[in-house]
Amino acid sequence: MEAEGIIRGAAHVRSDLDLAEGLEYLAGSVKAALHMAWAYERDFPFFARSTGPHSKLGLDNPDTLYFNAYLRDDAEYVVTGRRGSTADLSFQVLNGDYTPSASPDSLSAFDDRALETAPDGSFELRFGPEDPRRKDDPNYFTLGPGAAMLLVREVFSDWAAERPGEIRIHRADRLGHAPPAPTSARQAKRFDVAGKMLVSRLRTFLAFPEWHYLTLPVNTMTEPRPTPGGLATQYSSAGHFALRPDQAMIVTVPRSDAPYQGFQLGSMWYVSLDYANHQTSLTADQAAADPDGMIRMVVAERDPGLANWIETTGHDRGFLQVRWQRLSRELTPEDGPRVEVVPFADLPARLPFHDRQRVTPSQWAERIAARQISTARRMLG
Predict the structure, then answer these.
(1) Which class for 226: exposed (0-12), middle (13-18), buried (19 or more C-beta within 10 A)?
(2) Which has the minimum average pLDDT: 132-136, 178-182, 218-222, 304-308?
(3) What is the pTM for the complete model shown?
(4) Which domains are delineated in the chain?
(5) Quick one: CA torsion of 189, 193, 196, 200, rounded to 10 degrees?
(6) How far is the CA of 144 from the CAs of 71, 79, 96, in angstroms?
């Protein structure tokens, strides 16, 4: 099987853990490819979730629910919903999908601040061809030539307290009608599309880190910069790590005034680590900030007994990412992270508020239990 060969032949596979995670990634990718092939309904579209805890893709953000629907650029679509209490809700129109050699162009991107929303949080927006009669309608968005996909991101900062909203899509002139009955030829074509999508997906996101991460010096992170791909109000800082068991990385970043700020680790498969059962990510709301306004996170394999421990879960290499979303200003280098690799034994001396960050084993177990419960509720469905 070509897809399995891509996994087994990946350059970074050095251990049984690497291969086991790769095969799990393959299983999730098979599931997602089948799901997306059968979700390809441009005339009777619906929002599908191709990325989740069991079908990861593209350094998926543990704090985000991803939804996408397929479009055609000559039709009008109606998106209705209700705003939840999450930190951010954003929309992006793409002219295609990711390939092993290129990323799709972002034709438009905005968050819900651009919409007119009713007092109860409900909204209706439309996407369609250019229409001069609607140029002053804040809830009408022109589909540029080649528009092929609408991607929606709903982002959580406080997993326990925030609640998701609702969202639906239909083609404006097809509501109340039904799609044609399936044919065997069409279903066979979907299987063919799913197979091609699977191989492309695997090749693309093994190449993606080469474009954006692995050319950077190891154990460093970039200054905050607008996220590649056209996201309207997101900045990010990226890097990759390589740590020995006797080392720890201290990542220090100011607690931002942005509604969303999150940090995560990723494996060499360019997907998030297990964020439900381990603390491999933290948002500003989940992290313990120091009295000087800084969030100091300790990336390490060994448990330092600190609230902001970021678990590497057996990985001596991987990716680092900070995201800021729903920004109202440009970020500067001073807003970004500082990275320092230190001997694990030196942590008490290198962390100015070390004693304030200490947690007991029972307190740590409570943190993990809260993640498990929140993930199960948030990812349901």
Answers:
(1) middle
(2) 132-136
(3) 0.93
(4) 60-175 (2.60.120.600), 216-379 (2.60.120.1600)
(5) 170
(6) 11, 17, 12
